[in-house]
């Protein structure tokens, strides 16, 4: 029996009937009849309006109390909390209910739960009356040892083990297991505040009627006193008997009778001292001893007063906000109720639609069944007719009947001409009958195996028949998605995702000026296929994009956001021009004039054969067919990582023609390709910019050496760069600022700057590509040339 539960009260006399407390009665405007004007008015029936208002107040108070009662019920016993404990998950549960839950799992301490409160006179049946023998209470030192030992022994724990088992408690509120520690319930705090709220609630509505003495013989008298130390309620006689003069119990201070006894203050479950501080790190109340222990070393600990004031201010602020927005709460409640009504209607419609579809399937099956049965019936009748005819033919072959009897009569004919005339036809019939008799076979089979149905596929389809699911979140293909003159976005659905009828693309600029409110996405609806183009993006921006699918079931989840950098300048479209300054036997330009490959010639082979002898190496040059005379331009290309030596850059058109038109072979290996002969450095002053600038690539590396930078006019942002190499990215980007006379070389994938250098822009400037040995360059094609669906930023979707 639970020691903390009082015996059920006896039937309450009429003069002890439950009633509202005086405070609540005064708040409702209710007085005793004859004590005030309102009571007389109601008694005499002179003011019905006042009576109606009072009844409305009673209804409101009753409703408010009933709503608050839900917060005061234990999730286990569904009764009001009795000695609630605060679990680590911040939920509450009665102490007795917690012991029962642990007992159901096999965690039972010897002699009951040692974590319970000390034994009271009312907790044992043998001490319910002063005339019965008293039971000796456990000694304080033994009780202290039991309390500090935790929940006692339990399965898996050995006495004196260095690492005792950690006790897990199944929280009935959050449906999860919470860790209580090795001390079990003894390490939990009682929620004294919740106990006070429950007691005030009981007193306000007079739940349970009068409080009876727990030590009297039946029938017990009404209690007049309570003792916190003894944890029991007494009548006057029992209180005197249990607190005799000259004993320690005489020092106990009587209190008002109550059903819940609480300690005067919140005590530390580990050290039995009053808590004075709050550990913010552990979010737990601690005492002075806990504060200096190693368990809370380095933790942020504040006085209880500070934590009390901070939490009270937060709670007050939140409660004030809720109370100040009651109209919003009511509006949301109305919206939720309207949603409930729509849900009921929509659910009913969905049921009708499913029923109609299933009935349609049943009708199709019934129609198909009728047609199949009709086919079987026709086949059966045909076979029966053929078998019946065969039976008749065989019966005619019996002696004295049918064809045999007719033949026997014909054989009796003696007139030869007449016999010949009649026997000729008869002989044919007899011959056929004889042959049928010798090669007997039924005219039709009895098996209907050809009429069996294979419904395995249909049964599987019917078994898998389910509601249509929304598409799963698409996966954006980052290898095929890129930004150039336009943004090309490509995605795919997961393997087992339901199909999508169309897609919705959302995008926005992350570097756009901040606007009040949530980030605004631009949206394009009903995009067919698994790729799309976003036209006319802003240059030098970062776009974030996402995609979601849609079908009859609705919209699915968005894909993960993908960030794309757009080129820093408008894209320059051009083709390769190999009409001059090149060796056609060593350079091969593609038909679309967007790719070029250099094949090593005989001079390079001789150089590889005789490295220390003089030989001739040639520089093959390919220029773009356009020249830039203003503004900013950007283009990108891909260099074959296996290329021997390739230079990618720009230069003055006049200087490039002058330097490379019929360019003579130069001596190798003493020839330095970046010695200044190809840049016009001898005629340039210190302040003058070089007429062209190149980025040197070879064997999958980019050379950012000091010699190349200074001789070719390639200087970094902070002066000449140190000699180093960096890996070759998949694509290289070149950005030309004609007005500023600057050229930037970028990683076209991440738009990370590789090198920036000055350039003489006194005339038209055109792209240039130089080859020494084998190599290949591929210009990046404009995205707009792809026959994909286009989505214009700021406009409407258009088909290409």
TrEMBL record:
Comp. bias regions, Basic and acidic residues: 671-680
Sequence ranges assigned to domain COS in this UniProt record: 411-468
GO biological process, one term: microtubule bundle formation
Domain of life: Eukaryota
GO terms, molecular function: zinc ion binding
Name of the protein in its database record: Tripartite motif-containing protein 46 isoform X1
Keywords: Coiled coil, Cytoplasm, Cytoskeleton, Metal-binding, Repeat, Zinc, Zinc-finger
Organism classification: Eukaryota, Metazoa, Chordata, Craniata, Vertebrata
């Amino acid at each position: 029996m639970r020691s903390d539960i009082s015996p059920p009260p006896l039937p309450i006399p009429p003069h002890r009937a439950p009633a509202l407390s005086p405070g609540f009665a005064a708040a409702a405007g209710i007085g005793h009849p004859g004590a005030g004007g309102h009571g007389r008015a109601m008694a005499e029936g002179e003011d019905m309006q006042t009576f109606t208002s009072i009844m409305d107040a009673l209804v409101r108070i009753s409703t408010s109390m009933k709503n608050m009662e839900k917060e005061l019920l234990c999730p286990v016993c569904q009764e009001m909390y009795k000695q609630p404990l605060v679990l680590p998950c911040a939920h509450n549960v009665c102490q007795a209910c917690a012991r029962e839950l642990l007992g159901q799992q096999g965690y039972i301490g010897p002699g009951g739960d040692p974590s319970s409160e000390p034994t009271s006179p009312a907790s044992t049946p043998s001490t319910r009356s002063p005339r019965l023998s008293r039971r000796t209470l456990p000694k304080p030192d033994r009780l202290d040892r039991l309390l500090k030992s935790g929940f006692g022994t339990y399965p898996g724990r050995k006495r004196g083990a260095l690492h005792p088992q950690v006790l897990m408690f199944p929280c009935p509120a959050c449906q999860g297991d919470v860790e209580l520690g090795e001390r079990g319930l003894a390490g939990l705090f009682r929620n004294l505040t919740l106990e006070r709220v429950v007691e005030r609630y009981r007193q306000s509505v007079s739940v349970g009627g009068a409080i009876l003495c727990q030590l009297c013989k039946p029938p017990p008298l009404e209690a007049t006193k309570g003792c916190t130390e003894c944890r029991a309620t007494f009548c006057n006689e029992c209180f005197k008997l249990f607190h005799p003069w000259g004993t320690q119990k005489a020092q106990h201070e009587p209190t008002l009778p109550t059903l819940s006894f609480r300690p005067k203050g919140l005590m530390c479950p580990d050290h039995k001292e009053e808590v004075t501080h709050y550990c913010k790190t552990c979010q737990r109340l601690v005492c002075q001893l806990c504060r200096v222990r190693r368990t809370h070393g380095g933790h942020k600990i504040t006085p209880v007063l500070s934590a009390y004031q901070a939490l009270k201010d937060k709670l007050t602020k939140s409660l004030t906000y809720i109370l100040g927005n009651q109209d919003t709460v009511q509006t949301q409640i109305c919206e939720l109720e309207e949603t409930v009504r729509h849900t009921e209607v929509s659910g009913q419609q969905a049921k009708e639609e499913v029923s109609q579809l299933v009935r349609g399937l049943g009708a199709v099956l019934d129609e198909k069944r009728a047609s199949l049965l009709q086919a079987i019936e026709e086949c059966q009748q045909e076979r029966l007719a053929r078998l019946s005819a065969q039976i008749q033919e065989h019966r005619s072959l019996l002696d004295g009947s049918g064809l045999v009897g007719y033949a026997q009569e014909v054989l009796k004919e003696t007139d030869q001409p007449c016999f010949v005339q009649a026997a000729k036809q008869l002989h044919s019939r007899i011959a056929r009958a004889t042959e049928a008799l010798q090669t007997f076979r039924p005219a039709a089979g009895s098996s209907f195996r050809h009429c069996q149905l294979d419904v395995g596929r249909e049964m599987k389809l019917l078994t898998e028949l389910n509601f249509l699911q929304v598409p799963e979140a698409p996966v954006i293909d980052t290898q095929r998605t890129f930004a150039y003159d336009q943004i090309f976005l490509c995605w795919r659905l997961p393997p087992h995702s339901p199909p999508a009828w169309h897609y919705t693309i959302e995008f926005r600029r992350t570097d756009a000026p901040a606007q009040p409110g949530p980030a605004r996405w631009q949206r394009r609806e009903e995009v067919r296929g698994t790729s799309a183009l976003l036209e006319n993006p802003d240059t030098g921006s970062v776009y974030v994009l996402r995609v979601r699918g849609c079908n009859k079931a609705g919209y699915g989840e968005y894909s993960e956001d993908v960030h794309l950098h757009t080129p820093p300048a408008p894209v320059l479209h051009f083709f390769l021009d190999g009409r001059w300054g090149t060796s056609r036997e060593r350079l091969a330009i593609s038909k679309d004039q967007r790719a070029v490959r250099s094949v090593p010639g005989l001079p390079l082979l001789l150089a590889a054969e005789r490295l220390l002898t003089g030989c001739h190496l040639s520089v093959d040059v390919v220029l773009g067919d356009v020249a830039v005379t203003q503004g900013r331009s950007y283009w990108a290309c891909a260099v074959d990582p296996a290329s021997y030596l390739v230079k990618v850059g720009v230069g003055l058109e006049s200087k490039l023609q002058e330097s490379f038109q019929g360019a003579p072979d130069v001596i190798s290996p003493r020839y330095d390709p970046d010695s200044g002969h190809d840049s016009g450095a001898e005629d340039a002053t210190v302040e003058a910019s070089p007429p062209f600038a190149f980025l040197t690539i070879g064997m999958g590396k980019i050379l950012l050496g000091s010699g190349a930078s200074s001789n070719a006019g390639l200087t970094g942002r902070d002066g000449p760069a140190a000699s180093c190499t960096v890996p070759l990215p998949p694509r290289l980007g070149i950005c030309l600022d004609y007005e500023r006379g600057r050229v930037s070389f970028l990683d076209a994938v991440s738009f990370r700057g590789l090198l920036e250098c000055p350039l003489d822009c006194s005339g038209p400037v055109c792209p240039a590509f130089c080859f020494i040995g084998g190599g290949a360059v591929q210009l990046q094609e404009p995205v707009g040339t792809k026959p994909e669906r286009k989505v214009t930023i700021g406009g409407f979707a258009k088909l290409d």
